[in-house]
Write a structure and sequence with these properties.
Layout lengths: L2 H39 L4 H37 L2 H7 L4 H42 L8 E6 L4 E9 L4 E11 L2 E14 L4 E13 L2 E12 L20 H14 L4 H29 L7 H28 L4 H25 L1
Antiparallel strand pairs: 1-2, 2-3, 3-4, 4-5, 5-6
Helix pairs in contact: 1-2, 1-4, 2-4, 2-6, 2-7, 4-6, 5-6, 6-7, 6-8, 7-8
């Protein structure tokens, strides 16, 4: 690695981490100022608050690092251009493609780190972050609780009309079991509730119809304590559950949710693809940032920052809009995850070619 590569790579990595470490304390202070009253009202232990802000740091760093990296590249590249360093480098006979090499090395390092964090570190941080919010800040979490229908396994299906996650109970419970196309039995209850002390379900106004060759067997009870091959949380898992799973568990979870016919399956698939597409966006954003900031302009660094921020927020805008479409409709999660990347990769290549031709 030559002196030029080391010089640019040091600026690439160094400016990025300096920007991250500058914004993290600001983010923590803003969040703390908003929530300190709730912390006091709920008597949140100091140790749990500290662990919350550790998870908070990883959660938002993983969410915002592409923007921080984008701004960091624009900042130090614009300074190099304004100091005529880039002109001197290119005038010495080094091509623009050769000039890009240390940027690509830096992007590879950051992308590799981002993939590891996205697959294994961020899920644990997301779980701690969301569990803390549910425990101390908000008792409501996003989930489908009306007309819930789930396939529990290859043979059994469950329906409830309304699920209450706080009381761990549901109304109008129906469990059906099939053997091929043959209905074996059907259980109904006006309500079902998980009894944590006894580790069992209590059904109210329980009745069961078991179908046999010559008819059926009907049983009925006012209260019925029993166990099932599912947990009460399986009826309506929280929307963010995919965020909290490492890669291997996420793949198995998506497979199970697809078999169950979960209404959240597209969100889970989108989460899986974004764990790869967002780290790879580092390369796209690097190309765009270098292209818009490597030329010296009359407005100086401010013009480059304005152009870069505009493109960066357009990228975020497309990403968020497509994510909402997946959550609210049947829009393809694969297109939502990868289309912004390919669109802005095309823009980046165009800008690079335009810069090299000048």
């Amino acid at each position: 690695m030559k002196i030029l590569d080391k010089y640019i790579l040091k600026k690439y990595v160094g400016t990025f981490f300096v920007l991250i470490f500058l914004f993290i304390p600001i983010g923590i202070m803003v969040d703390l100022s908003e929530k300190i009253d709730k912390f006091k009202a709920n008597n949140v232990p100091l140790s749990e608050t500290l662990f919350y802000y550790i998870d908070f740091t990883w959660y938002f760093a993983n969410l915002l690092y592409p923007i921080f990296l984008f701004l960091a590249i624009i900042w130090f590249t614009s300074k190099m251009a304004n100091n005529t360093e880039i002109v001197a480098i290119l005038s010495s006979g080094i091509s623009f493609r050769r000039f890009l090499r240390p940027f690509l090395i830096g992007a590879t390092l950051i992308c590799s780190l981002a993939i590891v964090v996205s697959l294994y570190v961020a899920p644990a941080a997301s779980q701690g972050y969301n569990e803390f919010r549910y425990k101390y800040l908000s008792r409501s979490v996003e989930r489908f609780t009306k007309d819930v229908f789930q396939q529990i396994n290859d043979h059994e299906y469950v329906y409830v009309s309304n699920y209450d996650p706080i009381r761990q109970s549901a109304e109008n419970f129906v469990l059906t079991r099939f053997n091929g196309n043959q209905l074996e039995f059907k259980i109904k209850a006006s309500s079902i509730r998980w009894r944590n002390d006894d580790s069992l379900f209590r059904l109210t106004r329980y009745n069961k119809r078991k179908f046999i060759q010559r008819g059926e067997v009907f049983t009925q009870e006012t209260l019925k304590d029993t166990i099932f091959d599912f947990s009460i949380e399986d009826l309506a898992p929280v929307n963010y559950v995919a965020e909290t799973l490492p890669l291997g568990q996420l793949i198995q979870f998506i497979k199970l949710e697809r078999e169950r016919g979960s209404p959240l399956i597209n969100r889970h698939v989108l989460n899986f693809h974004k764990r790869w597409s967002i780290p790879l966006s580092v390369f796209v954003l690097t190309f765009i940032a270098v292209a818009v900031s490597s030329k010296k302009r009359r407005g100086g660094t401010g013009i480059n920052l304005a152009l870069g921020v505009t493109l960066g927020f357009l990228f975020v805008f497309f990403d968020k809009v497509l994510g909402v479409l997946v959550a609210k409709s049947t829009f393809s999660p694969i297109i939502a995850a990868w289309f912004p990347l390919f669109l802005f990769a095309t823009i980046g290549l165009y800008l690079i070619r335009k810069t090299t031709s000048q």
